Every structure is written in structure tokens, then in C-alpha cells.
Amino acid sequence: MAFDVSLTRAAYPALADGYAYLDGAAGTQVPQSVVDAIAGAYRSGIGNVGGAFPASDRSGGIVAECRAAVADLVGGHPDGVILGPNMTTLTYRLAAALSRDWAPGDEVVVSRLDHDANVRPWVQAASRVGATVRWAEVDTATGELPVEQYDTLIGPRTRLVAVTAASNVLGTRPDVAAITARARGAGALSYVDGVHASAHGYTDMVALGADFYATSAYKWSGPHVGAVVADPALLSTVRPDKLASSPDTVPQRFETGTSPFADFAGVVAAVEHLAGLDPAATGDRRSRLRSSLDAAEMYERELFGVLLNGLEAMPHVTLYGKPARRTATAYFTVAGRTPAAVAEHLAAHRVNVWHGHNYAWEVTAALGIRDAGSAVRAGLVHYNNEADVDRLLSAITDLP
Known about the structure:
This protein is α/β, with parallel strands linked by helices. The chain has two domains: 5-32 and 284-397, Alpha-Beta Complex (Aspartate Aminotransferase, domain 1); 35-273, Aspartate Aminotransferase, domain 2. Helices cover 38% and strands 14% of the residues. The protein is built from 14 helices and 13 strands. Strand 3 (107-111), helix 5 (120-129) and strand 4 (132-136) form a beta-alpha-beta unit. The longest helix is centred in the last third of the chain and has 28 residues, at 285-312. Residues 21-392 form the Aminotransferase class V domain.
């Protein structure tokens, strides 16, 4: 059936303020079901896990449900879902643990396409142990990350390859499976940043070849919770720093401090919301997620065509990146205006966008725009509609 954006938008109370929320690449709004789940957890009473009383049991149940929901979303195993405050924190934690086994002369491969959260933790970890960092370069004309370069970047001393499943500014979807296959052939691990990609279509981390797959719920209609998913058997070989008194089981050994249990309930509700985007979808939650996210991706692609065609028709607009496979994310500048000025102009027209490097530190430098304020980012998600796009295009047209 056709994707019903009106029905979808009705689930999001924040959209009633009349703004065009084209800032989804930095974080989405949440449906009422997520708000209710978080509030409901607090209303019911929650406590720390491991206690002998019902509120503690409720928290334990919420944690288990959250792991299962994230596993369904990305195609992992619940026992391999590490939960934490955000992807950056979790990636630093894993980089510190994994690099304990690295030595001088070992190599780590990172890409200039990635968000800095999948670059700097590995660069810094390599520096501490004397490992070598090798860089995959972006084709700045197209925004693509050529796969062939990995044939010379990956070798017998490669320990880890970090790559994004989608650029958070250019929208580029690299051929992750081809890259991870090369890593696997060399005996290296692959760490895939799926933070931007997970919001824009069905995810199968096994098909991607990801040993570690990172995602963040606030990018797909959930609260501010991050997750890294891996095979539990792999996680059992990794020893992070932890308190002597905290659990040494997997995945708990990677989770420091007391968890935000009510937010975890919101994560479950967010995954259920995504699984219900196609009301006709049937089967288990994983099957419903596939049907719903495929429908949402097709809708986003069609709407993004309207946005791209409109921007490309404007002579005073420069678009960055023309990848063959991409998310619904546009990164552009307007002649004679700084990105900050454009964002302020759009805000005055009740259009929310971001400007700047958006932590895409390396690619904005490669494009030669970082020192000039980088660019403006407009990103579509499944609750945006043509009126949102029209308002942005009209406001950009008004700029001389």
C-alpha cells in the first residue's frame, strides 16, 4: 500500500507547532507512543536492576525488551546489544578495549567520509599504541567512497576497518559489504557506523558484514540512547575497563553506571512505531520492520527527488555530493550567504535545518568548505511532507 504520511505525522505531537522539521539528520522528533512509554515507566515505578522488589523487576524487563527491540531493528542478537548514552561514548569505550591488543606496526583503516565519532576514537587509540592509521579518501566530485582503494589500504597488519553505512551530510551509502568482505579476508574487524543509515531504511548488519554495528535511537524517533551490536561470542573476547563490583557478563560488562530505564522503554516504543509504519505489515516484528521501513524509504526517496530537483534548478545554490546510493539528505550552500545566515533565514520562515560541519570533520575539509562555515543540511525523514519541502524551496528562492 502507499505510504500514508498524514497518518504518520499525526503520531508526532511536536509537528503541530507548524514548523518544517528538516533537521532529522541531527535528531528526530518522537511519536506520542514514545512519550507515553517513558512516562508510563516512571508512573509504574522503576528501580535499579538486581533487586528483590517489583520495581527492580520492571527495570530488568525493560532492559531485556530494549535489547530485543534494537536487535530486531538491525538484525542482531539481543545478547549482543550494548546500550549506552550515545554512539560516541560507546565507540570510545570499545576503541579503548579493542586497542589493548594492538601493537606498533598494526594498522587501522578509517574513512574521510565518516562522522568524526567513527574516526577520532580509532585515530587516538592507534596513536596511544603506536599503530598506523590509513585513510580511505572520498571522491569529492561525487561524494562516493571508492571501494577499490581498500585493496591497497587493507593488509595483513590491519586490525580494524571503520566505515559509515551512510554519510550524515552527503547521504552517501558506500558499498559497506564489499569493504567489510575485504577486511574479513585480511582477518580484520569491521566497525560500521549506522547512526545515520538506520533511520532511512531496513538494516541487516549480517548482510553488511559488520562485526560491530552502531546506532542511536534519537535518529529514528526514539530517545537519546545509543547502541552497539555485535556477536555475543565476539564481545566475550573483549575486556573493557570496568568496576570490580559490576557484572562481567556480556553485554553488561560494557555498560557503566546506572541505565536510563525509562528511556529504554521509549526505545522499545520507537521500534514498535517504526514496525507499524505500514499498517498492513504482518508477521513478527523483524518482518514488519522490513515492510514498513521499505515503504518509508521509498516515500522518502520520492520526496527527496522534489527537494533535489528544486535546489538544482536554482543557480545560486551549490549542492555537494552526487552519490548513486544515498539517504534523503541535501548539503548545500547559497551564493553570497554564509551557511549560518541561510539557516537563520530559514528559521525565520519556520524551517528547521542545520548548518556547519555537523561533525563530518574530514569530508568538509576535503570539500574545501570547513573553514568557511561548511554548508547547510536539510534532511528528510518519514514524517516530512511536500509542504515542508515547498517551504524550504520557497525560502531559498527568496534569497537574492
